[in-house]
Specification:
about 375 residues, alpha+beta, Cytochrome-c3 Hydrogenase, chain B, 16 helices, 8 strands, about 15% strand
Amino acid sequence: MIEQLKNSGFEEMTLNMGPQHPSTHGVLHLLLKMDGEVITEARPDIGYLHRGMEKIAEKRTWGANIALSDRWDYIASMSNNFAAVLGPEKLMSITVPKRAEYIRVIMAELNRIASHLIFFGTYGIDIGAFTPFFYAFREREKILDLYESVCGARLTYNYFRIGGVSADLPEEFIPGVKAFINYFRPKLKEYDTLLSTNPIFMDRTVGVGAITKEEAIDWALSGPNIRASGVNFDLRKDDPYSVYSEFDFNIPTGKNGDCWDRYMVRMNEMKESARIVEQALEKLEPGDIMAKVAKVIRPPAGEIYTHVEAPKGELGVYCISDGSTMPYRYKVRGPSFVNLAILQKMLKGLRIADVVAVLGSIDIVLGEVDR
């Protein structure tokens, strides 16, 4: 009887992880087929958070879609705003004032730090270390205080505008950013001592979920996930937008493409973002924060794809204008959505305990996966 069960394949077990699991980082359902503790097949099941963002965008004005973009990756709303304004600006041949460009870069890089801090804190919890979560939110709160002083919001900012930004910097903002950078740099060393070289953390991440350079390219990964596999690709360098070509910064990369490399790339990126913010502050001079743009935005008929280097990777927006106040077509390339696909390949052959480590290392937000 036992031999018959074995031959019938009844030893294999199907395990449902999520969509209410705390370590799936949102409403993600992982359908896992198991042979004991070894995963033989993994299938990400998405769509539980689908809000129809792209179709909603086609029924809203170009300007109103900036506020809608806040809700994609709601941990990196400033980067979303950046992606939402570039398309109509290029269609309308708008030249954004230099002061506004530097302000945009400052906001985007502070948001990169804030997003990676969320990753650092939650990844620590995923692996079993609770303290990093408190450390990360302690620093992130300081960035949110700065954002609140500028636009009055702490999560969904609606700060960028087609042609510039909605408000100039308050008097206390620049000294506040400088003070934060000076405060933050030593904390990165503290994080390394706390987690990066922790023996238990390294045992759970080094050599786990490795992605080769070729696999990363084949699966169209972007952001820290492709750079951890040794691919030196960053839109801020390879296809510069805004004023990124004016700044001196490095692109952190890994060698093995495993969970630990993906973690360390993000830790090192925070250092480089701090460098960019300092350089942007030095270049910031008095001037206009908005180009002269008509109150009613009507880009000429045409189509365009623009993209930014968001904290999680390439965030692109493809839009078609028919000359009206609303996009005819609005398509968002969310990096979390694309990066998640390789999970089905990465998990095969690993143990159930590795699922949380691998998924957390990809750093997804389901609002961007489902849109």
